[in-house]
C-alpha cells in the first residue's frame, strides 16, 4: 500500500518539482484546470506563487469569480466533459498569451481509474491519492461512477487500498492473491476499470509506423 504523505513534505516536493520544470522550460507560470475543491485548495496552498495570476483556478475554491467578459453557460444540463474542454480551451489561450503552461489537477486515483487521461504534461497532484486529498484539502474529483463516494472517507480509503493492491499484484511487488473487497464494487469490475485506464495511459498515441524511427513507437518506447 502506498504511504500517505505528510502535507508539508508533499507540498515541498510538488512545489519544488514544478518550480524546477518552469525554470528549465522557460514558462512563466501555471494555468490550472480540472480537480475538485480539495485539489484546488491544495494547489492554492502549495503552488500559489507558481500559478499565473489569470488562471481560473489560481485561488481557493469559491474565489475564482468569472470575469464579466466570460461567456455565460447556457441554461440546462451540460456534460462534464464539455465543461472541462471549455476550461481547457480558455486555459490554453491564456497560457499562449502569457508564455505559461496548462496543468491538470487530477489526483493519482483519478488518473488510474479514468480511461480518458488528461493530455496536459504537468500533473502536480498526480501522485496524491484521492483519500489523501480528502484528508488534506477537501473533496477530491473522481471519474464516474466513483464520484459518488468523494465525501466518504472510508469509501475512498477502501478504494485506494484496492487500487494499490491491484498495482502490487500486477507489477509483482507483492506475491499475494488477496483482493480488497467492498460492498461498493465488485473486484473484477474494478480491475477491468484499472486495466482500461492502464491501456489508455500506455497507448496514448496512435502513429502508423512507416519507418524505423517512428515517434511514440521507436523513439519513445
What kind of oligomer do you see? single chain
Note the gap between the termini.
28 Å
Order of helices and strands: HEHHEHHHH
Low-pLDDT stretches are 58-74
- Average per-residue pLDDT, rounded, comes to 82
Name some characteristics of this structure.
mainly alpha, two-stranded parallel sheet, globular, 221 residues
Topology:
Elements: H1 7-25, E1 30-33, H2 37-46, H3 80-98, E2 101-104, H4 108-113, H5 130-136, H6 153-170, H7 187-202
Parallel strand pairs: 1-2
Helix pairs in contact: 5-6
How would you summarize this macromolecular structure in one to three sentences?
About 45% of the residues lie in helices and about 5% in strands. It has about 220 residues and is mainly alpha-helical.
Written description of the protein model:
The chain is mostly helical and 221 residues long. It has helices spanning 7-25, 37-46, 80-98, 108-113, 130-136, 153-170, 187-202; strands spanning 30-33, 101-104. A two-stranded parallel ribbon has the order 1-2. Helix 5 (130-136) runs antiparallel to helix 6 (153-170). Residues 58-74 have low confidence and may be disordered.
